[in-house]
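We emphasize that the prediction below concerns an isolated chain of 183 residues; any contacts that depend on oligomerization or on bound cofactors are therefore not represented. The input was used exactly as deposited, without trimming of termini.
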Amino acid sequence: MAIYRFEERTPRVSKDAYVSPEATIVGDVTIGPGCFIGPGARIKGDYGTIVVGDETSIQENCVVHARPGERCEIGSRVNVGHGAIIHGGFVGDGAVVGMGAIISDFSRIGENAIVAEGCVVPARMEIPEKKIAVGVPAKIIGDVTEETIATYETYKDIYADLSRRYKTGLARIDDDTHQGNTK
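Result of the prediction step, given as a token string:
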């Protein structure tokens, strides 16, 4: 994994988190236990502060950054889908940020809220707790049901489990034996 101190800003990554060797963590970043940080994720606290709670998954090719002197906080048991961008702001515990979504500066995503795939949450917008937001720009279209929360909890359990399994089960293969060369 590529973890870098930047000037006096040093990342703090829980020993119980999994950070892919292809992810990059820079500067003032805190990553809690049980987190899964996927390949290609870039979490950059070079001039801002980033805090990621426990058992949160930041999946492949996500970007997380904070404005100068500001704080970007992603709560516990949050799923940040493949290719999403979180630039500043706050994402509450249990929220889901869909694939390719963009969360912009100073926005707030409430606990257990869902930001749909490809949704753009503009600067300073608030998505209240247990609401569903879709579109460009984001528009609130409904409520998150208890059944939906329970369904997403299973997915969050899967990523928390993967954070443990990847630490011991992932092995790089650098030869040709895996390319179907059997007789």
